[in-house]
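Me: I keep going back and forth on a fold encoding question. No explanation is needed for now; the record alone will do.

Assistant:
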Amino acid sequence: MALSKILPASQETIPVGKNLIINGAMQVAQRGTTFNNISQASYSLDRWKVFTGTISTVNITQQSADSTLPNSDYYLRAERSAGTNVWDVVQYLEGNALQPLRGNTAILSFKMRKGSGLTSDMSVTLRTTTTEGGSTAVDTTTSTITNATLTSSWQSFTVSLAVPAGSAAAGMYVAFSAGSQAGGANVYYEIAEVQLEVGNTATPFEHRSYGDELTRCQRYYAKTYNDGVAPATATSAGAVFHSLDATQSYAKATWDFPVTMRANPSIVVYNDNNGTSGQVSGDSNNYTGSAAYIGNNRAIAGVSGVSLGTSTYLRFHATMDAEL
């Protein structure tokens, strides 16, 4: 007799891989968990890019969930502590994410709440674009969540967008935007369990394992540091290492990326001894170093034009960025 696996009804209605958002549970934080006064157009938690304008101070943090968010471990807080400008949290999707959406409705679901100091309305935009990582719209919808609607308690919201079968869109993005107001105490909004899927009705949030989500994130950003260690930390654990058996005027080391990346990444090397970017360590000294021969799955980095002593080493960390 053939065997079959019987799942609870609640699981039977949740298809695996339905969520087109990466890191919607805000659990992967390779760059770090706290970004105070984050720079304009910089990434924070994996896959989430932040736009601050030029006259506001915005802080992004990964927050630990409590019993009010029982099915998740983390959420993202976007806080304005000073300045008067909008502040946006955005995720760009590759064109291949559009394939199941063409000719269908895309529905975005998420949870949101606010701090007591937030007085502006929120807008949530779902837009297909003419280029990957671009902003020029092909199809777009924006939903306003009034400040009066938001509370200090988690609420669920949805936004939908009809994507034509013949859409010429090459990319897509999701944006959470707060209106312009002065920064101050408790001026923040928080988002959790962000999901984008095909259909007219939102289904329960797809919870992925940490390993699965990390692998998806590493297509866009990866590092040689141990998981949980922020770039620029002074540590030799996990560093790229190359041993030399004779005096050398140059030294290079090759390392493989954890996954094949979206494109050839931009690479920053870090001295493992002191965390300084653009440096490597070797022969008990520090040297200017850089990456070369960069592919989408490996690269080399090192130094040249210096003398490294006999029976010594070359050592460094690196970050690899192929974000949209």
Notes: Residues 176 and 229 are 28 Å apart (CA to CA). Residues 1-14 have pLDDT under 50 and may be disordered. Residues 210-218 form the longest helix (9 residues). Residues 15-218 form a domain with the Jelly Rolls fold (CATH 2.60.120.260).
